[in-house]
Amino acid sequence: MIILASASPRRKELLSTLVNAFEVRPADIDETPFSMESPEEYVIRMAREKAEAIAKHDVEHRDVIIASDTSVVIDEQILGKPESFEHAKEMLRALSGKTHQVMTSVCVCNGGLNRVATCNVISDVSFREISDLEIEHYWKTGEPCDKAGSYAIQGVGGMFVKHMSGSFSAVVGLPIYEVSQFLSEFGVSPLKENIRE
Ligand SMILES: Cc1cn([C@H]2C[C@H](O)[C@@H](COP(=O)(O)OP(=O)(O)OP(=O)(O)O)O2)c(=O)[nH]c1=O
Question: In total, how many domains does the chain have?
């Protein structure tokens, strides 16, 4: 069985492009960064801890667990999901007119945790200038509230994105290329899964 250790609807949708059958089991972990931890170390640790939390309960040795974490990083500062409008405003002001990184880590492991593969996909995203009035209107769309950095590149937030380089699927929450490579290593063939008779 394949288990997606995530509450994110975006990750569920992206994984369903690769595999037909999987179970969704969100992992509840403490997402507070350690002091002195770099953004790279943080996102990799988050994905790994989400996978390990799921591996602890009710899994078979041969199950394949997929976990991921997305953080927006500007000037080495980690931006997670906003807690309020003021928090989202602070983040979007920091991103306005600048280039930031989106880091999405992936951890794929088996239920026995003796096979673990991790990676961190880093993309560069450049925003145009955004006014405070636009930030206010954007908040009212409801889109920023559950997104790292308070925006969604795949949604209305796409109108702020002047340029991006890297992996679009990773920015949305799950890098299709890297996950498909890991799945193949774990004996799951995404192409065969998608053959329609
Ligand atoms: C930057 C960006 C993030 N996001 C989303 C992807 C993730 O769902 C979310 C980042 O938060 P995460 O903490 O990585 O994920 P999550 O809490 O939604 O789900 P889980 O931890 O259970 O896997 O932000 C977008 O949808 N579009 C974007 O452009």
Answer: 1
- Atom of ligand 1 at shortest distance to CA of 68? 23
The predicted model scores a pTM of 0.96
Q: Respond yes or no: is residue 58 known to be catalytic.
A: no
CA angle 39, 44, 49 (to 5 degrees): 125
Digit-by-digit pLDDT tens for the chain (197 residues) are 999 999 999 999 999 999 999 999 999 999 999 999 999 999 999 999 999 999 999 899 999 999 999 999 999 999 999 999 999 999 999 999 999 999 999 999 999 999 999 999 999 999 999 999 999 999 999 999 999 999 999 999 999 999 999 999 999 999 999 999 999 999 998 877 777 76
Q: Say yes or no: CB of residue 102 within 6 Å of ligand 1.
A: yes
SS3 8: coil
Domain containing 43 equals 2-193
Q: What is the ipTM of this complex?
A: 0.97
CATH of the domain at 44: 3.90.950.10
Listed residue (131, 128, 39, 31) closest to 89, CA to CA: 131
